Amino acid sequence: MRLFINLSQVLLFLLNICQISQLSADTQCPIVPITPSDRRPSKNTFRIVQYNVEWLFVDYYAPMDCPGTHCTWVNQSEALIHMKYVSDVVATLQPDILNLCEVEGCDELNMLCSPNYLDDESYKPYLKQGTDTSTGQNVGMLTRLDPLISLFRTEEKVQYPLPGSNCGYTGSPGTTGVSKHYITEYKWYGRPVAIIGLHLLAYPEDPTRCAEREAQAQVIQNVIVQYIAKEYEIVVLGDFNDFDAEVVDLNDNVPSSRVLRILKGLDGKYTGQYILHNVAADMPQSERWTDWWDQNADGVSSPTEFSMIDHVLMTPFIQTKIINVGVYHGYDEFYGKYNSDHYPVVIDMDPLI
């Protein structure tokens, strides 16, 4: 009897360890190896892709009931079909660094790399868990080039509305941080590079979200100027949920916020202390659309329902290394689709990094 009890306790202990390990894997995987490696199949290419993959959730997230009735995929079967569609897009594009928005955690990133989907061991997942406990969404990366430092976050909060805001917010002042983002570093072209992957608050035209999003942009600007002071190059990429007034999209959408201007160094607390360029400036205006919003709720996409809210910003030196840039429009948008409601931004860089 004593032996049976001891064996039971051991099995229970091992089960708990397994469950804790699975929980940890699901939430985050920010740690880089001691010796980073370059696993690009060809050293003649270097492709960066920004992709909002729309609710890449497989593990059930109860606060959002996802997969379930409160997100796009109503059950796990639909979520797995969506995973296959995402993997097909990634396999087509073959990014060397892929920034993913709206991913649940590392389980999903590992699944995306697995034999049932990409079947590609050259990719490693990295994700620093954010603080958006409402949706459970995070920002992560799949990469063939390991970062030099483990992913981290800033927990700074900034008061909104910012001075000079034209968002039309009339409520009491508040504070906000950037719930979904990560920061890491590389060395490219002989220079240190800071990478900031982010997903800012939704609803471009909502006054409250506009004011909060401007504050989020100020938080990121505060990070950028610290790196600029250390002579780093900068890449900021993600779903900004806002428009660029200087690089207008397909439908000439104009922002009510200064989010892009703050991030580019044209506005905000540190106006003029640095400049970031939007890579969309290097593509025709007719190609500048990354997101579908079914404005009339008819289940069918039309040209006027597309906008560009996914962006990649770079310091001038890194911008000079761009060979080609565009948006991959390889699938249609409609009610009942399994692809994302966003399109990937694709940048081919000088491969001699």
UniProtKB/TrEMBL annotation:
Residues in Endonuclease/exonuclease/phosphatase domain copies: 81-316
InterPro entries assigned to the protein according to its UniProt record, in alphabetical order: Endo/exonu/phosph_ase_sf (IPR036691), Endo/exonuclease/phosphatase (IPR005135)
Gene3D superfamilies: Endonuclease/exonuclease/phosphatase (3.60.10.10)
A GO term for molecular function: catalytic activity
Name assigned to this protein: Endonuclease/exonuclease/phosphatase domain-containing protein
